[in-house]
Amino acid sequence: MADKRRFEVFARFLRETFPRAGRVYDVAGGMGRLNHELTRLGVSATTFDTRRKHLAVDFAERRLSLDEPCLCDLVAGMHPDGATRIIIEYAARHRLPFAVVPCCSDNGMPYKPWMRHLAEEARGLGFEVAEAVLPMTGRSRTLMGSIKTQGP
Fold it and tell me: What's the pTM value of the predicted model, to 2 decimals?
């Protein structure tokens, strides 16, 4: 069972971990609850999801595509199901950091191997990868990527 505080917890984590991210894309964000919590913390967010019924937040009623114009500083997803890979790929294409809390794989792979696969995929796309565990029940492992900086 997912923690009812998960959006609040993840929003606080994003705000603290990525303090310079003034604009966030919330991918596969359902009704926009993460967006709502980010907005409460002073972060501008746009939720991408195909839901017609959602909160009164900045909402793009479509899936995020790799060709979406980049108007954000961070790409995030809280339990984004099949959109987990697009978050990482979009962030890589636009040289942005990402943070995702996967709940399941989009290919039937068990959870731990899926997390390893995502980390390897992100490294292969040029990210420095880190993990954190959010203080909540349910799937709480967070995978984060920042673009590797070039040396002198």
Answer: 0.94
